[in-house]
Amino acid sequence: MNIIKFLESFTDDALYTSKSDRRESLANLGQLGKKSAAAMIPGGLLGLLLVPNKSKAATTAVLNDGNPTTALQLALTLEYLDSEFYQRGLDTPGLIPEGRDRTSFTKIVQNENTHVQTIISALGGTDSPNYFDRPEFDYTAGGMFDPFNNYDQFLAMSQAFEDTGVRAYKGQAHNLMSNRDLLKTALQIHSAESRQACEVRRLRGEKGWITGNQRGLGMPEQTQPTYNGEENANQAGFNSSNVNNGSAGPAIPSMAGTQAFDEPLTREQVLAIADMFIP
User: Fold this and answer.
1) How many CA atoms lie within 13 A of 143 on its CB side?
2) Which of 14, 50, 70, 114 gives the lowest tally of CB atoms within 10 Å of its CB?
């Protein structure tokens, strides 16, 4: 079942454009009017999959940029996906080696759990019509993977999840610009996701950044959608591949420019990746 088909765009941004303080902003997010709430998919994003006794009538998703609500719901989907994956890994005897690896993943899962609670609060809490429960995840993706019996595969999937998260948050930042407090919180989470991505890549013996659209050694082919588009070397109309080290210096290799920036992923691209793990 494709979760993209169960998305709708929310059109009431009034509560997100106010100049209230942070506490008021987070409290007001759950106070959408009845008319607006009635038009939403029950339970928010994935609601039709997660609440079987609610109506399943819904329009086909409008796969546009979305708004603060859909941006936060997308983020919550990814944080659910990541936090449960890492916790299962830590709970699997003998999977994650003691030392740096286990210490790193223990810290990462603590961060992810904090991100989940932060985003739920921003959505208005568990009683909000914008909230949805954690879905069931199939981390084998229908039998393609076996991460909890193969640590190399667990690491590879961890890298893909973190790299996806970094690009997803960047892709949704503009949807939160109408509320500076929400934007600040999202950017703080984005920063944490970036550091986590770097650490996981280091654990795999990789550099801490993405080069071009290369997924890295030992990464399953199915993870390629996470890296597509990262080969872009043009930033604000400037081609970074043409930069050189001064008039007499050698040109920087064309891929170096791609290492300096993470490209955004659209909501549709992110959900297509997540869809692999939601049966």
Assistant:
1) 0
2) 14
> Is the CB of residue 36 less than 8 Å from the CB of residue 67?
no
- Please state, in angstroms and rounded to a whole number, the distance separating the CA atoms of residues 170 and 152: 28
Q: Is the whole model's pTM more than 0.70, yes or no?
A: yes
- List for the chain the helix, strand, coil content (%; round to 5): 50, 0, 45
Residues 121-138 pLDDT 10s: 999 999 999 999 999 999
* Domains, the chain, with CATH or none: 3-277 (1.20.1260.10)
- pLDDT, one tens digit per residue, over 12-39 is 333 333 443 333 433 343 333 332 222 2
CA–CA separation, 124 vs 115, rounded Å? 14
Q: Rounded to the nearest 10 degrees, what angle do helices 151-172 and 267-274 cross at?
A: 160
- Give the CA distances from residue 268 to residues 57, 74, 102, 159, 161, in Å, rounded to whole numbers and listed in that order: 21, 10, 33, 20, 16
CA atoms lying within 13 Å on the CB side of residue 154: 22
